Structure formats: C-alpha cells, structure tokens
C-alpha cells in the first residue's frame, strides 16, 4: 500500500495523480476540544497502515515524552504534529490529511475545536462530502455540537456521521448512545440532512473506527471507515456543470494558444460548446492538452489546457463554462457570510471580493439578518460581529461570473479580503443571482494585483481555495 499522510510531504496534486483511478471522498471532522478528533484521525491513519515503521518508532518515543497516555502510544501525536500545539495542547489550524484504502482515497479536513472554529470549519467544510461530528459519550450533545451541525448544514453538506466517541468510558451503554442520537435527530430535523449515521466508537482503543468493535454487542452497523468507503460522493449524486477558471493563458508560440486551469466542476470533451465568462464569447473545445498527451475527456480536479476552435479572448479571471449552463454575470450579490474578522461588518464597508480567479471591489449595501447558532433561526440584524453567520447584499464595482452556491460550491463561493490588512475576512456563499440588466465593464483580466497576491499568500481560505481549485 502506498504510504503518505501529510500534505507537506506529499502534495495534493501528487496525491490525486497517484490515486487517479480511485474515487476521492473529502470529509471534515468537527468536535469540541478533547472530544478526540486527533485520536480518531490518528487511529484511521494507523489502522489503515498509512504510517511508516520509523514513524511508529518516533511515535512511541514522542508518546513517552509528550503524550497524554502514560506508557501507551498517544495516537493524537500522529496528527498534532506541531511543536507549538503540543506545548499548548490544542490543534491550531485546518490541517489536511490524506490516506487511502483499496476502495477509496480520503482527504480529511481536521479543524480545531477552539473559538476560531467558525472560520476554520467553513474552510474545511466548503469542500467536504461528509461531516464526521464527534461527540464525547460522557458529555453528550453540547452547544458546540449544535453549532457545528448548523454550520455543516449551511455549507451544504448533507451527510453526517455522528461519531459517538469514548464509548469505553460509558461502559458501551446503548441507552447513552440512543439518547445522544435522538437528541441530535431532534435538533437536526430542520437542517435538511439526507443522512445521519450514528456510530458508537472508541478512537483510543480502535473499536468501530477501522475494525469492528466487539464491546457493543447491540450495534449491528459498520465501522466508521466502512461507512466512509461506501457513502456516495457528491459527483455520484448530481453531475455539476462544467466550469474551469482560467489560471493562465498558455501561448508558447504564435501557433498555440491554450487556456490552463484546474477543472472546478463537471467534465469536458473535444467538440463541447463552451461560453467564456465574462465576455460571453462562445466556441467549441478543439483539444484537451496535458503534459501526458491529449485527453478524450477531462473532469473535476484535473489540471488541463483547453484549446478552443476559435480565436477567443480570455485571460486570468475568466471562467470557461459549458454553453448549455453558462454562469450568470452580475454586479450585485446576495451572500451568506461567515464573518471572521475582529471588526464588525456594517453597511458601507468596502472589501475585496475574490471568486475563483476574479477579484473585484465590493461594498456592503445592506446587512439583512443574522442566524442564531443555537437554534439555526434567522433574525433581523444590521451588522455582523466576529464568528457571526448572516446574510448581506454586496454591490460590486464590476460584473463577475457566478453560480448560486447550491449549484456549484466553487463558482458559488467567495472570500472577502480586508483591504488594509489583506487578511481573509469572510467566506461567502452566493444565495441568489440576478443577472445584471445592463452591460458594465466586466472584471478585467487583472494582472497580479494586490488582492490576488494577498489571496495567494495569505489566509486559510485562500490556501484551501488554491488547493481545491479556486
Ligand atoms: N478513553 C478514551 N479516551 C479517548 C478516546 N478518544 C480520545 N481520547 C482521549 O481524549 C483526549 C483528547 O483527545 P484528542 O484526540 O487530543 O482530542 P481533540 O478533539 O483532537 O482535541 P484538540 O486537538 O485539543 O482539539 C486524549 O487524552 C485522548 O487519549 C476514546 O475513545 N476513549
């Protein structure tokens, strides 16, 4: 089995190339501090044999030195690799872990349970197919569990694995398990999950994570990993329309002109009719060019260069889309925001908005409502504070090409960037899109501008967008 577990050691592209033939499932883990997320991911890596022997030796040594398990191996150390977080005892950032089994490859977004969770969770969840929500069986559902479930549902993840962990500490009590599950179902009823799968487990002991546990004689379901291997991934549920943001124009000589980018969604084949946003120019795909030769079809997640049949002007910032479902051009956006900046957001605020490779100036026209994280109910509001979720209208200085988030997570999400600090201030999900009635100057094919640089180098969201094709 191929061995890899860290994005630093093994890049996303390389990971996908190696496992091209396998389906990829992206999932996010969420839970409060100490529910056992790191131990669970460590257990998944360990029991699927994703770690080298020398890592095991290092782990045994580290466990004695830094671990919380006495003489035993502390699996959380496999995941909590950073020195600082060992010292502080918390996980700091969103970290991506890669592992694979014979059936599937997995990309796990591990987000911390401390107070930055809104931003971090929004980051990880915006690309996930499934959310694994951890609950400590001793404590049951907490405020955090409810908040995480709400965020997951707002971000459009329809499947939840409710991992009821530390069952060993409650004597594998079926009553406890049933009570937690029914409490969750009651809270989640309005959240539109298509599936909630509860699994009793012990990440520490390895019961029902990769291998079936024997302690819960009453449980007749599968271990978590088996669920993750079998759950349908998004692409099986709905074929998204083809979208490829142009990252650069490949023009090595006057005979060749191709548009290079990462396919954000859908697939494309030579002969397909395409429309380029924002210019609205149409053409057909003549060739799909890659370093390994031409392709008959290319799909989501692949980096390709498209050669079009006609001389079409498109540059960085443009999006090539299928002509039967083009993007909408607009300069006014209704957006659900996950506001992450320390300063409040109020009407009149001016920020950069970045959708894929397009960057424009955005002014907050109105703040409409705030969603109560406890209940999921929306109430009127005129500003948003740090970690708030709310709905706003943005006025853009130029038209951009977007989709509603429900139709396409890539072309339907944006980040807002603080103009002063160049920090990522929010993740936004496009709610409704009304096409602009009159033509205004479309977003230019900006040369590398300040916000783009910022979004390239700074901010978690930007990093993830980069990794996952924004
Ligand atoms: N008994 C028992 N202890 C567990 C289990 N899972 C995790 N733990 C322990 O719970 C503590 C917290 O586990 P972590 O994996 O560090 O928790 P976390 O959710 O990643 O916490 P942060 O990284 O701080 O967000 C550690 O001491 C683990 O060994 C379990 O199934 N049973």
From TrEMBL:
Alphabetical UniProt keywords: ATP-binding, GTP-binding, Nucleotide-binding, Nucleotidyltransferase, Transferase
Assembly and binders: Sulfate-activating enzymes, NodP and NodQ, may be physically associated. Heterodimer composed of CysD, the smaller subunit, and CysN.
GO terms (BP aspect): hydrogen sulfide biosynthetic process; sulfate assimilation
Pathway(s) of this molecule: Sulfur metabolism; hydrogen sulfide biosynthesis; sulfite from sulfate: step 1/3
GO molecular function: adenylylsulfate kinase activity; ATP binding; GTP binding; GTPase activity; sulfate adenylyltransferase (ATP) activity
Residues bound to GTP: 31-38, 110-114, 165-168
Alphabetical list of SUPFAM superfamilies matching this protein: EF-Tu/eEF-1alpha/eIF2-gamma C-terminal domain, P-loop containing nucleoside triphosphate hydrolases, Translation proteins
Listed name of the protein: Sulfate adenylyltransferase subunit 1
